[in-house]
Every structure is written in C-alpha cells, then in structure tokens.
UniProtKB/TrEMBL annotation:
PANTHER family: OUTER MEMBRANE PROTEIN ASSEMBLY FACTOR BAME (PTHR37482:SF1). Residues 56-124 form the Outer membrane protein assembly factor BamE domain. The keyword Lipoprotein applies. It is found in: Cell outer membrane. This is Outer membrane protein assembly factor BamE. Part of the outer membrane protein assembly complex, which is involved in assembly and insertion of beta-barrel proteins into the outer membrane. Residues 137-191 are annotated as: Disordered. Part of the Bam complex.
Length: 191
C-alpha cells in the first residue's frame, strides 16, 4: 500500500495513524535548525566568511554641496553619477541609493533624492551623509594600526641574500633558426 493511498483512504483512523507521525517529523525539522546552526560554527568559535556587499551609488557630503538649483540634468549626473532609480512614472525625480553590508558591522544605508522641474535642478533631499574622508575611514576598519613594514634591506641583509642565492647558470646557445618549409597550395578556382 502506498503513502498516497493511505492518506487518501476513506478510513479516518488510517489517515490519522499515518498523518500524525508525518506531521511530527516535519515539525522536528525546524527544531533542528538551531542545533545545526550551533554545530556549523562550533558554538560560536568559528564563524563563516560573509563577503562585503556594496550596492548603489556612493554619494558624499561634498558632492551634494556642489549641486546648485538650476543645474541641468547632465551637470547633476556629472557630479553624482548615473542614478540608481530613474522611473518613467517619476520623470522629475532621481534616486541615489547606497547600501553597504559588512560582517560584524551595522549595515549602512543612505538615500539622496534629486528633484527636477523640467530639465533644471529644483531641490535635493538627502540623509545625513559622511564626508569623503569619513567614508573612506569607515571602510578601513579591518586594518590594524601597526606601522607599515620597512621595504628597504640593509647592507647585511643584501650580502646574506647574495650568499644564499645559487650561482647563475651559463646561458645555453640559441638554436639556429629553422629554414622555412616550401609550401604549395592548390589553386582556389578551377579553370
């Protein structure tokens, strides 16, 4: 007897006998989700790598300050770049959206909306934006504050390196150039 016939059988007791364990088994799958999550990262000691997600246009405070009412759409696009959202239904509005997600940090989300009247800039509405320097500093949070390594070798280090390096091998003589092979091709057209 197949599972389908058992589930569709007219006897309610048969259905209940098979349906109850099936529902319990499916319900147990969600309870195992937390246990598998704890096992996958060894109790929080090891975390999986999640790559940074950068979407949209980076717009900083200096760019918005450079916008002046009356600028053309081309001038605005030259300063802010191509808008992320330029809707046919809202032809007088461009939206610049920026989202940055990094593991272990709160996601950053900023929206700048530019309104036009005809072909001229009317006004700009923006979230609080960082300066370019502040934005770049927020990206470098993983770097350590250690001083950079010295990229120069001392005289002693150079002499030690030369002593360890194998002696150069003599160059092998260059092979003589091969004579071109005589080739004969059949005619392209028959006469």
């Amino acid at each position: 007897m197949t599972l389908r016939t058992l589930l569709l059988s007219p006897a309610p007791r048969r259905r209940a006998v098979w349906l109850a364990p099936l529902l319990l088994a499916l319900g147990g799958c969600s309870a195992l989700d937390g246990a598998t999550q704890r096992l996958s990262n060894l109790g929080g000691l090891v975390t999986p790598y999640r790559m940074d997600i950068l979407q949209g246009n980076v717009v900083v405070r200096e760019q918005v300050q450079a916008l002046q009412p009356g600028m053309t759409r081309e001038q605005v696009q030259g300063i802010l770049g191509t808008p992320l959202v330029a809707s046919v239904f809202h032809a007088n509005r461009w939206d610049y959206v920026f989202v940055f997600q990094r593991q272990g940090q709160a996601p950053q989300r900023r929206v700048v909306t530019v309104f036009f009247e005809g072909d001229r800039l009317q006004r700009v509405q923006a979230d609080e934006l960082p300066s370019e320097e502040e934005f770049v500093a927020s990206l470098d949070t993983r770097r350590r504050a250690d001083k950079p390594p010295v990229l120069e070798a001392s005289e002693e280090q150079l002499k030690a390196f030369e002593a360890k390096a194998p002696a150069p091998r003599p160059a092998a003589p260059a092979p003589a150039p091969a004579a071109p092979a005589a080739t004969s091709y059949p005619p392209l057209e028959s006469r």
